[in-house]
Amino acid sequence: IMQVKKAAVKLCLALAVIVPCMAWGQTSSINAFSPYSMYGLGELRTPGTLQTRSMGGVGVGMRNAAAVNLLNPAAYSAVRPKSFLFDFGLEGQCFYNSQKYYGQTLNTSYYTVNFHDIAFQLPIAKHLGLGFSLTPYSSVGYRMKQEVDDDEIWGNIGRVQYQWDGDGDVTEVKLGLGWEIFRGFSIGIAAQYYWGDIQRIYKTAILENITGGGLIADATGTETYSVSRFKGQFGVQWSPISNRRRILTIGATYDIGGDLNPNVTTKVQTGDIFNTVAMDMGNRLGLKLPQQVAVGIYYNTPKIAVGADDLYNSSVKGDTTHLALVLPRQLSVGAFYQTSKWTMGVDYVYQDWRSGNSRLVEKSAAGFDVAYRNTNTVKLGVEYTPNKADVRSALKRWSYRAGVRYGTYNQTFGGVDVNEYAVTLGVGIPLTVLGGILGASSVDLGVEVGGRGSFKAINEQVSLVKQTYCKFSLGVTLFGDYWFVRPKYD
User: Fold this and answer.
1) Which of 85, 185, 220, 329 is the right S-S partner for 121, CB 3.0 to 4.6 Å?
2) What is the pTM of this model?
């Protein structure tokens, strides 16, 4: 038995080292595929372990000694003395995007797989618990291309191609303490560290001029956002009903938000004769670029040829600046009700995006404005376990979960609001091997189907993007009582 515990501890420590390295490396891969991630921090990921995400994302009021809670640091105090909780999750996503564009319906799809969370909770002292988690906060991923034959900028110069690419993410690391001040009432505090890189590329190419031919000029503009900031979160939980038959817990959290202030490095690169391309690129990215001047001399004899050119500013870099981007203040409240068979929860989340981000994000290529808006989200979830102690039927020990989520997106496009929704299902399979040593541990499976946007028109020719997605998740929770007790016999 002790060998099993030691092996599990080694596994947890190995994952705790390997997964942060995976998270650090994931900023160079596409972890989402959504045109809604073109602006700001991109697509915000759903927080929580798979157990809570399979219940619509509820969990502010969840208080369970055998489950990790990533939403409320006050729940850290629920961990039992001399025990240990570890959680790890993976998530695969399928994105389907459709848009009405100049009389056509355009469709794209993409698939991604990545880790979702790594977390653990353990006791520090009586009624005092510590929690740690590493989770993706937001992801950026998109690829778009447009070709025009007659552009107002280039006049009659020829066929022009525009291309937009973006990828990257922001990761959240959270370390906090939860303290049960008196029976049924706990408070928590957590420090949150956000880091990551987001890269957005805008490329313009003149494919052919009016006399024919291939590529004659191109320019590439690159913006790189580097995030590295600390924030904080406070939480509280109160259980007005707590006995052997049922538990009702009310919880609340407050995220202080504040300036994220990412470093932004802007670069425009060109080396072609049509320097107008680079000049327009610089204007689009906010750079004042000098004109390019090239001079050369060439001397040729029957035996030797010598040449020299001087090219001025074929590659231009802009200075690193700071983007005025603010994380929202967030208020979450929720209630969680538990019996031996049923678990039900409801959460409400408000995020104040407009106070610090009231200005327009930027002017889009399609000519409409993109602005921030405050968001409201409601989550509902339920879990049913027929009989946790049944030794004859494994299916009766399984936990069956379902939930819904509905809210508003944090940006508007051309003044049009975007709503988003999700329906979730999941199952928790307990590990009951080795005489019940891992009886409170589980393997969790979940699926989420949702979407955002509609075909509502932004202008006469372009609609919003109607996005549908499907997420498949796998999670592992390891729980052990008395992991830190010295054995008398080994």
Assistant:
1) 85
2) 0.81
